[in-house]
Specification:
about 170 residues; mainly beta; Lipocalin; 8-stranded antiparallel barrel; globular
Length: about 170
């Protein structure tokens, strides 16, 4: 089987911002019944990318995780992401791969996965995608060897979990 292939490159400034999760492969650390999942990427002071994931768990309780992504190549299509506290991020093998496998020309949709094919996300700037558009991106994932049988398509309200629910 061919190796998983990332896109040739992405414009990181265009990639920044908020994305809605449309569907994903199951994650051991994320509630399979979570809804309203978003990921917001912004520049971090150290040259990395701040990652903030938000969702409502199966009981409707807001949850958030904050991490950092670091490009692994100049083309920015392959990143390493860690959600460990900053003081633990130095530990080897604690950051996960995050490869952009496909991206719409207008940066409205992205397919992201891992080279081991265990993790996959279809994300969009909008909370819903036409099924034929989603199917085209998922067909690309299948062509790269991803097993989509356990794919989770989640409930999206179109609204982000509000800042006010998190007491910082």
């Amino acid at each position: 089987m061919k190796d998983v292939a990332a896109v040739p490159g992405i414009d990181l400034d265009r990639y920044l911002g908020t994305w809605f999760e449309i569907c994903r492969l199951p994650l051991k650390w994320e509630d399979a019944e979570a809804s309203a999942i978003t990921a917001t990427y912004s520049k971090a002071g150290d040259g990395g990318i701040r990652v903030e994931n938000r969702c409502l768990d199966k009981h409707g309780t807001p949850e958030r995780s904050i991490g950092v992504a670091v490009p692994q190549e100049e083309n920015n299509a392959k990143l390493k992401v860690s959600f460990l506290p900053a003081y633990l991020r130095w530990i080897p093998f604690t950051a996960g791969d995050y490869w952009v496998l496909a991206i719409a020309p207008d940066y409205s949709i992205a397919l992201v996965g891992t080279p081991d094919r265990k993790h996959l996300w279809l994300i969009s700037r909008t909370a819903a995608l036409p099924s034929d558009v989603a199917d085209n991106y998922l067909a690309l994932a299948k062509s790269q060897g991803f097993n989509l049988d356990p794919l989770i398509t989640l409930r999206q309200s179109g609204h982000m979990v509000a800042d006010a629910v998190f007491a910082d």
